[in-house]
């Protein structure tokens, strides 16, 4: 009995000591507004990758004669691939995870319903790739990169119509049996795109559209440093019609 009483007494003393030691820490936490450890939240942002074939027209169009130019007259259609990469941020995502979007943009995004965001690192990925062997007399290989852009959705999903514009850079090599050759075309430009998208399922959709890319003119067969004019002997416009399959994948992020 004496031994049991001694054990109880030691337990009481240990409890009092622990309480005394924790009291200052608790008071300090209360003064500093400490609310305890908070587990990070986890959000899934859909990332949409679109890939599909494209028909490419290279030339020098005019209001009087329509689409033309030496390259277009030699071979009207070249082959290409259209690539898109963008994050899809919806109003439902913002309501569930408001901290994903900075406070000053939340109301705008909630009003818009959906915003497509192309990360800056995606500029490394070409928007268009040209891989067109010499079917008749002219072959063309190269790519166009979208450097900076913005878009406007004219209608919401699942039948989404959008209009976009971006600064671009194009580099392509063209060789021909009938035109001055070779041509190393390297030029900056502006891209105007009209896109129609159909969301067939939650993670898959189809889109088709037209892209009009206007560059500084370069003569056919001329050097990169040579400035051309907006006539049939120069390249300054690349038109592209395309069809894409759009695939969505979840990208998981954590925040506190």
Layout of secondary structure:
Elements: H1 2-32, E1 41-59, H2 70-74, E2 78-90, H3 91-96, H4 103-112, E3 114-117, E4 128-132, E5 138-155, E6 159-176, E7 183-198, E8 204-219, E9 234-255
Antiparallel strand pairs: 1-2, 1-9, 2-3, 2-4, 4-5, 5-6, 6-7, 7-8, 8-9
Q: Per the principal axes of the C-alpha atoms, what is the gross shape?
A: elongated
Q: Hey, roughly how much beta strand do the residues contain?
A: over 45%
Q: What's the total number of strands?
A: 9
Poorly predicted parts:
1-36
> From N to C, what is the helix and strand string?
HEHEHHEEEEEEE
Round the Cα radius of gyration to an integer and report it: 30 Å
Distance between the termini: 54 Å
Structural class estimated from helices and strands: alpha+beta
Strand order of the largest sheet: 1-2-4-5-6-7-8-9
Residues in helix, %: 10-25%
Please outline the major beta sheet: 8 strands, antiparallel, barrel
Mean pLDDT comes to 82
Number of helices: 4
Summarize the structure in words:
- The two termini are 54 Å apart.
- The relative contact order is 0.19.
- The chain has helices at 2-32, 70-74, 91-96, 103-112, and strands spanning 41-59, 78-90, 114-117, 128-132, 138-155, 159-176, 183-198, 204-219, 234-255.
- 20% of the residues lie in helices and 51% in strands.
- An eight-stranded antiparallel barrel has the order 1-2-4-5-6-7-8-9.
- With 256 residues, the protein is an alpha+beta fold.
């Amino acid at each position: 009995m004496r031994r049991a009483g001694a054990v109880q007494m030691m337990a009481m003393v240990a409890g009092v000591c622990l309480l005394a030691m924790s009291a200052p820490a608790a008071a300090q936490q209360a003064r500093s507004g400490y609310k305890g450890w908070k587990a990070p939240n986890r959000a899934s942002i859909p990332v949409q990758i679109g890939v599909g074939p494209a028909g490419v027209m290279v030339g020098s169009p005019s209001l009087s004669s329509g689409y033309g130019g030496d390259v277009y007259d030699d071979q009207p259609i070249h082959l290409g691939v259209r690539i898109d990469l963008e994050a899809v941020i919806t109003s439902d995502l913002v309501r569930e995870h408001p901290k994903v979007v900075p406070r000053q943009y939340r109301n705008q995004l909630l009003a818009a319903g959906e915003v497509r965001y192309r990360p800056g690192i995606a500029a490394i990925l070409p928007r268009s790739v040209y891989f067109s062997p010499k079917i008749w007399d002219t072959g063309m290989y190269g790519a166009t990169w979208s450097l900076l852009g913005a878009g406007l959705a004219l209608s919401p999903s699942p039948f989404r119509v959008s209009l976009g514009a971006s600064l671009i850079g194009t580099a392509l090599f063209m060789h021909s049996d009938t035109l001055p050759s070779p041509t190393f075309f390297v030029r900056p430009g502006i891209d105007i795109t009209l896109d129609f998208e159909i969301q067939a399922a939650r993670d898959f959709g189809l889109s088709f559209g037209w892209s009009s890319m206007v560059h500084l003119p370069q003569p056919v067969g001329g050097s990169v440093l040579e400035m051309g004019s907006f006539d049939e002997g120069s390249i300054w416009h690349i038109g592209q019609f395309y069809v894409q399959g759009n695939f969505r994948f979840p990208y998981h992020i954590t925040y506190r």
